[in-house]
Protein backbone atom coordinates (compact mmCIF):
# COMPACT_ATOMS: atom_id res chain seq x y z
CA UNK A 1 0.00 0.00 0.00
CA UNK A 2 1.31 3.47 -0.86
CA UNK A 3 -0.15 6.93 -1.23
CA UNK A 4 -1.42 8.71 -4.29
CA UNK A 5 -1.58 12.41 -5.18
CA UNK A 6 -4.98 14.10 -4.99
CA UNK A 7 -5.20 17.28 -7.06
CA UNK A 8 -8.14 19.62 -6.44
CA UNK A 9 -8.66 22.59 -8.77
CA UNK A 10 -11.24 25.39 -8.53
CA UNK A 11 -13.75 23.35 -6.52
CA UNK A 12 -17.03 25.06 -5.57
CA UNK A 13 -19.99 23.65 -3.65
CA UNK A 14 -23.41 25.05 -2.77
CA UNK A 15 -26.66 23.76 -1.34
CA UNK A 16 -29.34 25.69 -3.18
CA UNK A 17 -28.52 29.37 -2.78
CA UNK A 18 -26.21 28.75 0.16
CA UNK A 19 -22.60 28.75 -1.01
CA UNK A 20 -20.40 26.53 1.17
CA UNK A 21 -17.02 27.34 -0.40
CA UNK A 22 -15.70 28.46 -3.77
CA UNK A 23 -12.58 28.05 -5.89
CA UNK A 24 -10.79 25.64 -3.54
CA UNK A 25 -7.48 24.47 -5.03
CA UNK A 26 -4.93 22.27 -3.28
CA UNK A 27 -2.78 19.21 -3.88
CA UNK A 28 -2.51 16.47 -1.26
CA UNK A 29 1.06 15.18 -1.67
CA UNK A 30 1.28 11.39 -1.97
CA UNK A 31 2.07 9.55 1.25
CA UNK A 32 1.86 12.62 3.49
CA UNK A 33 -0.42 13.56 6.39
CA UNK A 34 -2.47 16.70 5.74
CA UNK A 35 -4.88 18.49 8.08
CA UNK A 36 -7.85 20.66 7.11
CA UNK A 37 -8.84 23.27 9.69
CA UNK A 38 -11.47 25.96 9.92
CA UNK A 39 -14.09 27.44 12.24
CA UNK A 40 -17.29 25.45 12.73
CA UNK A 41 -19.66 25.60 9.78
CA UNK A 42 -17.04 26.26 7.10
CA UNK A 43 -17.75 23.03 5.21
CA UNK A 44 -14.82 20.82 6.16
CA UNK A 45 -16.89 17.63 6.31
CA UNK A 46 -18.64 18.68 3.09
CA UNK A 47 -15.19 18.86 1.49
CA UNK A 48 -14.44 15.26 2.53
CA UNK A 49 -17.76 14.04 1.12
CA UNK A 50 -17.09 15.91 -2.12
CA UNK A 51 -13.58 14.50 -2.33
CA UNK A 52 -14.87 10.93 -2.24
CA UNK A 53 -17.68 11.61 -4.70
CA UNK A 54 -20.63 11.44 -2.30
CA UNK A 55 -21.46 15.08 -3.12
CA UNK A 56 -21.11 16.63 -6.56
CA UNK A 57 -19.59 20.13 -6.82
CA UNK A 58 -20.90 22.80 -9.19
CA UNK A 59 -17.42 23.63 -10.51
CA UNK A 60 -13.87 22.34 -10.44
CA UNK A 61 -12.06 19.02 -10.65
CA UNK A 62 -10.70 16.29 -8.38
CA UNK A 63 -8.00 14.31 -10.16
CA UNK A 64 -6.73 10.94 -8.88
CA UNK A 65 -4.72 8.60 -11.12
CA UNK A 66 -5.47 10.86 -14.11
CA UNK A 67 -9.23 10.48 -13.50
CA UNK A 68 -11.45 13.48 -12.77
CA UNK A 69 -13.97 12.27 -10.19
CA UNK A 70 -16.30 15.17 -11.01
CA UNK A 71 -16.72 14.12 -14.65
CA UNK A 72 -16.10 10.38 -14.77
CA UNK A 73 -18.91 7.83 -15.15
CA UNK A 74 -20.42 5.94 -12.21
CA UNK A 75 -18.50 2.75 -12.94
CA UNK A 76 -15.12 4.52 -12.84
CA UNK A 77 -16.15 6.51 -9.75
CA UNK A 78 -17.01 3.24 -7.98
CA UNK A 79 -13.54 1.89 -8.79
CA UNK A 80 -11.79 5.06 -7.59
CA UNK A 81 -13.74 5.00 -4.33
CA UNK A 82 -12.04 1.70 -3.50
CA UNK A 83 -8.81 3.69 -3.14
CA UNK A 84 -10.32 5.47 -0.11
CA UNK A 85 -10.65 4.44 3.49
CA UNK A 86 -12.78 6.66 5.74
CA UNK A 87 -12.84 7.06 9.52
CA UNK A 88 -16.12 8.75 10.44
CA UNK A 89 -16.60 10.91 13.53
CA UNK A 90 -18.31 8.23 15.63
CA UNK A 91 -16.71 5.23 13.95
CA UNK A 92 -20.01 4.45 12.15
CA UNK A 93 -19.98 0.84 13.32
CA UNK A 94 -22.95 -1.51 12.98
CA UNK A 95 -24.31 -1.85 16.52
CA UNK A 96 -25.57 -5.41 16.05
CA UNK A 97 -22.22 -6.73 14.76
CA UNK A 98 -19.17 -7.51 16.85
CA UNK A 99 -15.89 -5.78 16.03
CA UNK A 100 -14.63 -8.66 13.93
CA UNK A 101 -17.68 -8.62 11.64
CA UNK A 102 -17.66 -4.81 11.47
CA UNK A 103 -14.07 -4.79 10.29
CA UNK A 104 -14.57 -7.73 7.94
CA UNK A 105 -17.63 -6.11 6.31
CA UNK A 106 -15.80 -4.25 3.45
CA UNK A 107 -13.87 -7.41 2.57
CA UNK A 108 -17.04 -9.47 2.34
CA UNK A 109 -18.85 -6.74 0.43
CA UNK A 110 -16.17 -5.72 -2.09
CA UNK A 111 -13.87 -8.74 -2.51
CA UNK A 112 -14.08 -12.47 -3.18
CA UNK A 113 -11.60 -13.42 -0.48
CA UNK A 114 -12.11 -16.60 1.51
CA UNK A 115 -13.00 -16.47 5.19
CA UNK A 116 -9.51 -17.69 5.99
CA UNK A 117 -7.98 -14.74 4.09
CA UNK A 118 -10.47 -12.36 5.71
CA UNK A 119 -9.58 -13.68 9.16
CA UNK A 120 -5.88 -13.04 8.57
CA UNK A 121 -6.47 -9.51 7.26
CA UNK A 122 -8.83 -8.55 10.09
CA UNK A 123 -6.38 -9.91 12.67
CA UNK A 124 -3.55 -7.88 11.12
CA UNK A 125 -5.52 -4.62 11.08
CA UNK A 126 -6.88 -5.09 14.60
CA UNK A 127 -3.33 -5.69 15.81
CA UNK A 128 -2.18 -2.50 14.05
CA UNK A 129 -4.71 -0.37 15.97
CA UNK A 130 -4.25 -2.16 19.30
CA UNK A 131 -7.52 -4.14 19.39
CA UNK A 132 -6.15 -7.68 19.29
CA UNK A 133 -8.31 -9.87 21.52
CA UNK A 134 -11.41 -7.66 21.29
CA UNK A 135 -12.92 -9.31 18.21
CA UNK A 136 -16.10 -10.55 19.94
CA UNK A 137 -17.04 -7.25 21.62
CA UNK A 138 -20.00 -5.19 20.42
CA UNK A 139 -19.65 -1.43 19.73
CA UNK A 140 -21.90 -0.68 22.69
CA UNK A 141 -19.57 -2.54 25.04
CA UNK A 142 -16.44 -0.50 24.32
CA UNK A 143 -15.23 3.06 24.87
CA UNK A 144 -15.37 5.87 22.34
CA UNK A 145 -11.64 5.62 21.74
CA UNK A 146 -11.91 1.91 20.99
CA UNK A 147 -14.78 2.56 18.57
CA UNK A 148 -12.59 5.07 16.75
CA UNK A 149 -9.80 2.51 16.48
CA UNK A 150 -12.21 -0.15 15.27
CA UNK A 151 -13.48 2.26 12.63
CA UNK A 152 -9.87 2.92 11.63
CA UNK A 153 -9.15 -0.81 11.33
CA UNK A 154 -12.18 -1.14 9.05
CA UNK A 155 -10.91 1.78 6.96
CA UNK A 156 -7.60 -0.08 6.51
CA UNK A 157 -8.80 -3.54 5.45
CA UNK A 158 -8.88 -2.79 1.71
CA UNK A 159 -5.34 -1.33 1.87
CA UNK A 160 -6.47 2.14 0.70
CA UNK A 161 -4.12 4.61 -0.93
CA UNK A 162 -6.01 7.54 0.62
CA UNK A 163 -7.42 7.64 4.18
CA UNK A 164 -9.83 10.37 5.27
CA UNK A 165 -10.38 11.18 8.97
CA UNK A 166 -13.47 13.21 9.86
CA UNK A 167 -12.70 14.77 13.26
CA UNK A 168 -11.09 11.63 14.71
CA UNK A 169 -10.51 13.42 18.05
CA UNK A 170 -14.18 14.39 18.45
CA UNK A 171 -15.47 13.25 21.85
CA UNK A 172 -12.09 12.02 23.06
CA UNK A 173 -10.23 13.29 26.12
CA UNK A 174 -6.71 14.75 25.66
CA UNK A 175 -4.97 11.49 26.63
CA UNK A 176 -6.93 9.38 24.12
CA UNK A 177 -6.42 12.06 21.50
CA UNK A 178 -2.65 11.89 22.09
CA UNK A 179 -2.71 8.10 21.66
CA UNK A 180 -4.79 8.41 18.49
CA UNK A 181 -2.40 11.01 17.06
CA UNK A 182 0.55 8.69 17.65
CA UNK A 183 -1.38 5.86 16.02
CA UNK A 184 -2.02 8.00 12.93
CA UNK A 185 1.69 8.79 12.58
CA UNK A 186 2.63 5.14 13.09
CA UNK A 187 0.12 3.97 10.47
CA UNK A 188 1.48 6.48 7.97
CA UNK A 189 5.00 5.20 8.61
CA UNK A 190 3.85 1.63 7.92
CA UNK A 191 1.60 2.29 4.90
CA UNK A 192 2.94 5.49 3.27
CA UNK A 193 -0.71 6.23 2.36
CA UNK A 194 -2.06 9.73 1.79
CA UNK A 195 -3.91 10.98 4.89
CA UNK A 196 -6.34 13.91 5.18
CA UNK A 197 -7.61 14.82 8.65
CA UNK A 198 -10.42 17.24 9.44
CA UNK A 199 -10.01 18.49 13.01
CA UNK A 200 -10.62 21.36 15.42
CA UNK A 201 -7.88 20.25 17.80
CA UNK A 202 -5.06 22.79 17.76
CA UNK A 203 -2.47 20.45 19.27
CA UNK A 204 -3.25 17.87 16.59
CA UNK A 205 -2.86 20.52 13.91
CA UNK A 206 0.46 21.68 15.36
CA UNK A 207 2.10 18.30 15.93
CA UNK A 208 0.68 15.68 13.52
CA UNK A 209 0.52 16.85 9.88
CA UNK A 210 3.06 17.39 7.17
CA UNK A 211 0.71 19.92 5.55
CA UNK A 212 -2.00 22.23 6.88
CA UNK A 213 -4.93 23.87 5.11
CA UNK A 214 -7.61 26.21 6.43
CA UNK A 215 -11.11 27.03 5.19
CA UNK A 216 -12.44 30.47 6.12
CA UNK A 217 -15.20 32.69 4.73
CA UNK A 218 -16.10 30.22 1.99
CA UNK A 219 -12.54 30.01 0.63
CA UNK A 220 -9.32 28.15 1.29
CA UNK A 221 -7.26 30.68 3.23
CA UNK A 222 -4.00 28.78 2.84
CA UNK A 223 -2.54 25.32 2.26
CA UNK A 224 1.08 24.25 2.53
CA UNK A 225 3.83 22.57 4.57
CA UNK A 226 3.39 22.70 8.34
CA UNK A 227 6.42 24.95 8.88
CA UNK A 228 4.97 27.58 6.54
CA UNK A 229 1.52 27.61 8.14
CA UNK A 230 2.85 27.55 11.72
CA UNK A 231 4.96 30.66 11.03
CA UNK A 232 2.33 32.41 8.92
CA UNK A 233 1.56 36.06 9.64
CA UNK A 234 -1.85 35.75 7.97
CA UNK A 235 -4.26 36.99 10.72
CA UNK A 236 -6.81 34.18 10.23
CA UNK A 237 -4.28 31.36 10.13
CA UNK A 238 -2.24 32.75 13.01
CA UNK A 239 -5.29 33.32 15.22
CA UNK A 240 -6.68 29.82 14.70
CA UNK A 241 -3.41 27.91 15.05
CA UNK A 242 -2.50 29.79 18.23
CA UNK A 243 -6.02 29.59 19.70
CA UNK A 244 -6.27 33.34 20.30
CA UNK A 245 -9.39 35.38 20.86
CA UNK A 246 -7.81 38.36 19.10
CA UNK A 247 -8.24 38.32 15.34
CA UNK A 248 -10.77 38.24 12.50
CA UNK A 249 -12.54 35.05 13.67
CA UNK A 250 -15.41 35.57 16.09
CA UNK A 251 -18.16 33.46 17.62
CA UNK A 252 -20.02 33.54 14.30
CA UNK A 253 -16.83 33.12 12.22
CA UNK A 254 -16.56 36.82 11.35
CA UNK A 255 -16.10 39.90 13.53
CA UNK A 256 -16.90 43.54 13.15
CA UNK A 257 -14.03 45.09 11.18
CA UNK A 258 -13.28 47.76 13.79
CA UNK A 259 -13.17 45.23 16.60
CA UNK A 260 -10.89 42.94 14.61
CA UNK A 261 -8.52 45.84 13.90
CA UNK A 262 -8.36 46.78 17.59
CA UNK A 263 -7.55 43.21 18.54
CA UNK A 264 -4.94 42.90 15.81
CA UNK A 265 -3.26 46.03 17.20
CA UNK A 266 -2.94 44.21 20.54
CA UNK A 267 -1.21 41.33 18.80
CA UNK A 268 1.14 43.67 16.92
CA UNK A 269 2.51 44.78 20.27
CA UNK A 270 3.86 41.26 20.82
CA UNK A 271 7.24 40.51 19.31
CA UNK A 272 8.38 37.42 17.43
CA UNK A 273 6.65 34.23 16.41
CA UNK A 274 5.76 31.44 18.83
CA UNK A 275 8.12 28.45 18.60
CA UNK A 276 7.18 25.67 16.19
CA UNK A 277 6.11 22.57 18.09
CA UNK A 278 8.04 19.47 17.02
CA UNK A 279 6.19 16.99 14.84
CA UNK A 280 5.30 13.63 16.36
CA UNK A 281 7.73 10.92 15.26
CA UNK A 282 6.89 7.32 14.46
CA UNK A 283 7.31 4.87 17.32
CA UNK A 284 10.82 3.50 17.63
CA UNK A 285 11.27 0.34 15.58
CA UNK A 286 8.81 1.33 12.82
CA UNK A 287 9.97 2.39 9.35
CA UNK A 288 11.12 5.98 8.94
CA UNK A 289 8.33 8.17 7.56
CA UNK A 290 9.23 8.96 3.95
CA UNK A 291 6.86 11.93 4.03
CA UNK A 292 9.13 13.93 6.33
CA UNK A 293 12.06 14.15 3.91
CA UNK A 294 9.76 15.03 1.01
CA UNK A 295 8.13 17.85 2.95
CA UNK A 296 11.43 19.21 4.26
CA UNK A 297 12.77 19.40 0.71
CA UNK A 298 9.74 21.44 -0.38
CA UNK A 299 10.29 23.80 2.55
CA UNK A 300 13.96 24.21 1.63
CA UNK A 301 12.97 25.06 -1.93
CA UNK A 302 10.50 27.75 -0.86
CA UNK A 303 12.25 29.12 2.24
CA UNK A 304 13.72 32.15 0.44
CA UNK A 305 10.18 33.29 -0.48
CA UNK A 306 9.00 33.53 3.15
CA UNK A 307 9.20 36.59 5.44
CA UNK A 308 12.47 36.94 7.38
CA UNK A 309 10.83 36.16 10.74
CA UNK A 310 9.35 32.94 9.35
CA UNK A 311 12.71 31.94 7.83
CA UNK A 312 14.44 32.43 11.16
CA UNK A 313 11.76 30.50 13.09
CA UNK A 314 11.97 27.58 10.66
CA UNK A 315 15.78 27.50 10.76
CA UNK A 316 15.72 27.58 14.55
CA UNK A 317 13.16 24.77 14.67
CA UNK A 318 15.15 22.61 12.27
CA UNK A 319 18.35 23.16 14.25
CA UNK A 320 16.60 22.17 17.48
CA UNK A 321 15.43 18.95 15.83
CA UNK A 322 18.94 18.29 14.52
CA UNK A 323 20.51 18.91 17.92
CA UNK A 324 18.06 16.50 19.54
CA UNK A 325 19.03 13.65 17.19
CA UNK A 326 21.50 11.04 18.43
CA UNK A 327 24.92 11.23 16.79
CA UNK A 328 24.69 7.64 15.58
CA UNK A 329 21.64 5.62 14.54
CA UNK A 330 21.53 1.89 13.92
CA UNK A 331 19.43 0.96 10.91
CA UNK A 332 17.74 -2.42 10.65
CA UNK A 333 15.75 -2.85 13.88
CA UNK A 334 12.70 -5.08 13.52
CA UNK A 335 9.26 -3.39 13.81
CA UNK A 336 7.92 -3.16 17.39
CA UNK A 337 11.22 -4.62 18.58
CA UNK A 338 10.20 -8.12 17.55
CA UNK A 339 13.16 -10.36 16.69
CA UNK A 340 13.83 -10.47 13.01
CA UNK A 341 17.09 -12.36 12.72
CA UNK A 342 20.41 -10.74 12.02
CA UNK A 343 19.61 -7.20 10.85
CA UNK A 344 22.20 -5.34 8.80
CA UNK A 345 23.54 -2.30 10.59
CA UNK A 346 24.75 0.95 9.23
CA UNK A 347 26.11 3.90 11.15
CA UNK A 348 24.62 7.19 10.03
CA UNK A 349 25.98 10.67 10.79
CA UNK A 350 23.96 13.00 12.97
CA UNK A 351 20.94 14.17 10.98
CA UNK A 352 20.37 17.81 10.19
CA UNK A 353 23.67 19.64 10.16
CA UNK A 354 24.51 19.16 6.46
CA UNK A 355 20.95 20.03 5.38
CA UNK A 356 20.22 23.27 7.17
CA UNK A 357 18.07 25.71 5.28
CA UNK A 358 20.74 28.39 5.32
CA UNK A 359 23.15 26.19 3.35
CA UNK A 360 24.04 27.68 -0.05
CA UNK A 361 22.04 26.07 -2.86
Q: How would you characterize this protein structure?
A:
The strands form 4 sheets. The protein has a 6-stranded mixed sheet. A 4-stranded antiparallel sheet has the order 2-1-4-5, with helices on one face. It folds into 2 domains: 222 residues, 3-Layer(aba) Sandwich (Rossmann fold); 35 residues, no CATH class. The chain is globular. β4 and β5 form a beta hairpin. The protein is an alpha/beta fold and 361 residues long. α3 packs across α4 and α3 packs parallel to α5. The protein is built from 12 helices and 14 strands.
- List how many beta strands DSSP finds: 14
What is the third-level CATH name, the topology of the largest domain? Answer: Rossmann fold
CATH architecture of the largest domain, by name, is 3-Layer(aba) Sandwich
Q: Which class best fits the helix and strand makeup?
A: alpha/beta
Number of structural units classed as domains: 2
Q: Give, in spatial order, the strands making up the sheet with the most strands.
A: 6-7-8-3-9-10
CA radius of gyration is 22 Å
What's the total helix number?
A: 12
Order of helices and strands: EEEHEEHEHHHEHEHEEHHEEHHHEE
Low-confidence stretches: 328-361
CATH homologous superfamily identity of the largest domain: P-loop containing nucleotide triphosphate hydrolases
Terminal Cα span = 34 Å
Helix fraction bin = 25-40%
The biggest sheet amounts to: 6 strands, mixed
CATH class group of the largest domain: Alpha Beta
The overall average pLDDT, rounded, is: 83
Q: Using the alpha-carbon principal axes, give the shape.
A: globular
Beta strand %: 15-25%
